[in-house]
Amino acid sequence: MSQDGQVDQAGQAGPAGQGEPASLWTFEFAALCAISMLAFSNISIFYGFYGHLTEIGIPPAWRGPLLALEPLTAFALRPFLGRYLTMGNGGRFMAAGFCLLALSLASYPLASTIPALAVVRLVHGTGFAVTIGGLMGVLMAILPREKSAQGFGLFSLTILVPYALMPLFVELLLPHVANTAEVYALAAPLMLPALLLVALLRKKVREKTRGMPREHLRRPEWSEVRQSLAQPGVLPLVTANLCFVAAQSIVFFFMRDFAVSLGAGNPGMFFTCANAAVITLRVAGGPLLDRLDKGRVLFWSYLWLAALVPLFAQAGQAVVLFGMAVLYGMGMAMSMPLTNSCMLQISLPRLRVFNANLLMLAVDAGFFAGPFLGGMLMAAGWTHTGLFDVGGALMLAAGLCILPVARQMRRTAQEQTSEHS
What we know:
Blueprint: H1 27-44, H2 49-55, H3 60-82, H4 90-107, H5 114-142, H6 148-173, H7 180-186, H8 191-209, H9 222-230, H10 234-261, H11 269-285, H12 294-308, H13 318-346, H14 352-379, H15 384-420
């Protein structure tokens, strides 16, 4: 998108809305959705990794760090990747990332000591960071701005579907394999169709970028990075996403053991119920997302989750917990698409890819902080009640971070309305 608000060849409509509305459903968008589903399928099966570490005899003090090492690796690489990712090279990053993912998944059955597991987790984190960095860079470049919330909502379903289905599928596989690590290895072949899709996508992206201005394809300078960080709303959004994902990861990594303690026959049903609610709401309400006061709705979504997560400990029965999972999914339904849409809306056009990776940096940090903190607290003798209280506090912190962003976006919308009236 050019600075004067016209529509560019990446399909981004300008803020003033000139030009024909860009289509959301293109080959590039559909391919990215499929690639994302395959990428996140290899992460969603690790909901029981803490239990796996327990089963193979890893000392309690090392379980949290090993659990967190994969997202910590991604977190450490993200700032470096963000400086080199552009619209034109995202496909190469994704291809390299999927190769590393396949290698790490196939290696889990061979890793039973702390050093071996650390190496595998490092490779896994590197592969995931490279894959998702390339994917998000291309997505931010091709997504029509006037349909950004709807686009992010639909795209996020490709992340949620694996989290809804894979835990349930893993539970069905576990009685037929020697241990959980063999299930991880079985996911390695899923990276092969992903590589084929990436190859097709790279060809389409090359065709799309041939006529684009050169400045749209070069990596940002450090002065532009500093400019991005100084933009009002960018750092509060990143901080809110960090707190939100840390809370979400506590629920994700420690819910299985809690559900089992309540007598759940298939603890994966918690994630199935939660994500079924998310998918239903996003499909049914997707077209409405871009008409909402995004900042305000995001704030209330975080507050809803802040009140709900501590109540998990009071469920008492598995069936009650699964009912609460539906309410949890309702709160989650708005969070991811609105966070990304807000970032797209407040970002300068040249810095959208970089800011998208800032949000992913927060995701990596959250997926490190949540399980690391949870593992340390469990090793110190805390119960799930305390863990869920911490999760609720983190959700509340996310809501407080969003308040200034919501006010800024409301003022901007009012000023634009006054200018056009």
